Amino acid sequence: MKYKTLTQYLVEQQREHKAVSAEVRLLIETVSRACKAISHAVSKGALGGVLGSLGTENVQGEVQKKLDVLSNEILLEANEWGGNLAAMASEEMQTIHRIPNHYPKGQNLLLFDPLDGSSNIDVNVSIGTIFSVLQAPPEAAGREIAEADFLQPGTRQVAAGYAIYGPQTMLVLTVGAGVMGFTLDREMGSWLLTHENIRLPEQTAEFAINMSNMRHWEAPVRRYIDECLQGETGPLGKNYNMRWIASMVADVHRILTRGGVFMYPRDARASGRKGKLRLMYEANPMSFLVEQAGGRAIDGGGRILDIQPDALHQRIGVILGSREEVERLQRYHQEA
Ligand SMILES: O=P(O)(O)OC[C@H]1O[C@](O)(COP(=O)(O)O)[C@@H](O)[C@@H]1O
Ligand SMILES: [Mg+2]
Ligand SMILES: [Mg+2]
């Protein structure tokens, strides 16, 4: 079977469907090359000296793994040279990284979670890279990009995707024209379009949540999970299965493949933080993908993609996946 390459797909989207600009096409290709390099580093594991912690903390007070920092550097370096970008923002960096004057500059803004699922690195479980592309707002023309220029709702994303480093390395991408899955052919070094037009089943009997946080959940999430656990004889009338990989990339990949609902809800913890996951690097790109595949994504209050961000590293509750289940959860929030 002959598969299209990522480049062929993107050129088609640019020329025939006008779904992507030449600049964004080149940017996605650069990100995909960086993901290939991260994939090689990940697969070397202990032999490449990439496992373990660095003993430093990121801006959010989380201990950084060697791979968090290495992946961040790979993405920065690749995109400084070839990304057609104005600036970048990363979960691992305090503030934005502007493209220096001597590099080719573009109009786009790139955001990334360089290594998602950090707690799984050392135990050889799937991890990934998540990215999102925005455009510099018109008012930024002629001046330096500011952090505030990144604070755009997810509906403004022009592309988003993730690479998953699992049994296979895949790149799952949307440019707003459906969701495409590319598998890395290591011998050829190419991304091949193996999963065309990924669609998410509307119904499901599988949920993903970290049950150890149950005592902190808000009432609507508690109600939904209680009902799932009651199985066939409960109000939902079916037996549910549960999965929790603790890599958002891997959990979302499973959901895009066979349906399900993923939750890292905001909760009632005294810390007052609104959930664990980051709006700009995790929730927005994944919500864009899930909606493009026919699913839904909410924070409990409403649609994630409509949220006006108020900070680069803002955290948010995330509920996403199969349409009917997410709509049910939305109803439970409204009723509460
Ligand atoms: O360990 P917990 O609390 O279950 O959290 C798991 C979640 O945290 C994350 O690992 C956060 O991402 P990072 O590894 O990029 O910080 C998600 O991928 C995952 O869904
Ligand atoms: Mg993450
Ligand atoms: Mg991360």
How are the SSEs ordered, and which strands pair?
Elements: H1 6-15, H2 22-44, E1 53-57, E2 63-65, H3 66-82, E3 85-90, E4 97-98, E5 108-116, E6 127-135, E7 159-165, E8 169-174, E9 179-185, E10 190-195, E11 206-208, H4 219-230, E12 241-242, H5 248-258, E13 261-264, E14 277-278, H6 279-292, E15 296-298, E16 315-316, E17 318-321, H7 323-335
Parallel strand pairs: 3-5, 11-12, 11-13
Antiparallel strand pairs: 1-2, 3-4, 5-6, 6-7, 7-8, 8-9, 9-10, 13-17, 14-16, 15-17
Helix pairs in contact: 2-3, 4-7
The site of one magnesium ion has 6 residues, from strand 5.
Binding site for substrate: 116-119, 210, 276
Binding site for Mg(2+) 2: 113, 116, 282
Main location: cytoplasm
TL;DR of this structure?
The protein has 7 helices and 17 strands.
Folded structure, characterized:
The chain is an alpha+beta fold and 336 residues long. The protein has two domains: 6-195, Fructose-1,6-Bisphosphatase, Chain A, domain 1 (2-Layer Sandwich), CATH 3.30.540; 206-335, D-Maltodextrin-Binding Protein, domain 2, CATH 3.40.190.80. The protein is built from seven helices and 17 strands. It has helices spanning 6-15, 22-44, 66-82, 219-230, 248-258, 279-292, 323-335; strands at residues 53-57, 63-65, 85-90, 97-98, 108-116, 127-135, 159-165, 169-174, 179-185, 190-195, 206-208, 241-242, 261-264, 277-278, 296-298, 315-316, 318-321. The chain has an eight-stranded mixed beta sheet, sandwiched between helices. Strands 12-11-13-17-15 form a five-stranded mixed beta sheet, with helices on both faces. It has a two-stranded antiparallel sheet with strand order 1-2. Strand 3 and strand 4 (97-98) form a beta hairpin. The longest helix has 23 residues, at 22-44. The termini are far apart. Residues 68, 91, 113, 115-116, 118 line the site of one magnesium ion (MG). 1,6-di-O-phosphono-beta-D-fructofuranose binds at residues 62, 91, 113, 116-119, 210, 246-248, 264, 276. InterPro entries: FBPase_C_dom, FBPase_class-1, FBPase_N, FBPtase. One of its GO terms (biological process) is gluconeogenesis. Residues 200-333 form the Fructose-1-6-bisphosphatase class 1 C-terminal domain. Its main location: cytoplasm. Substrate binds at residues 116-119, 210, 276.
